[in-house]
Amino acid sequence: MVSRPTLKDVGAAAGVSVYVASRALRGESGVAQSTRARVLEAASQLGYVRNEMAASLKMKSSHTVGILTASGRNQYYSMLAQAIDNTLHEYGYFAVTTDMIKDRTNTQESEGESVRLLLEQRPAAIIATYALRPESLEIIESMRIPVVFVDSPPAKAGVYPFVGSDNYQAGRLAGDYLGRLGHKHAMILAFPKTWQTFEARVRGFKDAAKEWDMDVQVRETQGNDPESAYIELGDLLGNHAKAQWPDAVFALNTMMVLGAFRAMKERNVAIGQDVSLIAIDDFDWAPMLDPPLTVIAQNMEEIGRQAGRFVVDAIKGNSLNGQQLTIAVKLIERESCRDRNLPLAERGRNQ
């Protein structure tokens, strides 16, 4: 049986010591570019694959960064994780992702299991997209592993570094937009308030609604998933006369708008005519819906880039002192919201 090439083999083929070969393969400083290229070429020709787990046992940590996501079903998190991973690669790290949501809920058991799985990889740092429970943070801190929060701020403000969207601005932009279009009876289709982004998005929308004399009802779903949103909005549409429907629905994220779209389509609600629909998060499929969906877009690329930089700084031992970085959002207007200041026929011609 042919044995696997070792680091010693790579060093010998490149004409350098094992120490230099190791530093070159890890992308560390102090190695000349020509030497690094020679080592990488030797490793490629020999078919050498670095054993990250074995290396981590020797180094007490690895070049792995763990990402704890809050819902693998939500495309937002997969895109965010990809943006983070792209930045980490620039610094010689790579991401391992695990989902804290099991059976559509985040329990203490599911969160604890996800944290333990990541810690077994001996990560250099952890990125959390959900405010972790104190028990989870205690375990991570006991291992002296830095934590950066992304998307959902931590329960203890000012203690841990955080990067995320301006959620208040997101809600306010949506409320102001619907107000300018003449809406007077809006509904917020909201995931459970246990999610940290709930409060700021709802508050921003309500503050804008007051300025336009628009009344707002908040319908909180059982879970942060399309099925829960479908049931909640479907119940309202199915059990109330059309005159009692809201004239606009603001979906707090992708999971909510997927359920809303299905509920409205199945009940023959003319989206953008009978009821306007606006949501937070923009994706490739949003312009292809019928009608194309108006959204408040988060800058996931920038969030991921800044989160990656925060993590690398934390790994290097740089004190971030609970630094908070808020990324602006923007309105992308399409055709799912009706301008009620115009007659219906004229609105159709203008679209």
Automatic annotation (TrEMBL):
CDD domains: HTH_LacI, PBP1_LacI_sugar_binding-like
PROSITE patterns assigned to the protein according to its UniProt record, in alphabetical order: HTH_LACI_2
Molecular functions per Gene Ontology: DNA-binding transcription factor activity; transcription cis-regulatory region binding
Annotated HTH lacI-type domain residues: 5-59
Keywords in alphabetical order: DNA-binding, Transcription, Transcription regulation
Domain of life: Bacteria
Name of the protein in question: Sugar-binding protein
UniProt organism field: Bifidobacterium scardovii
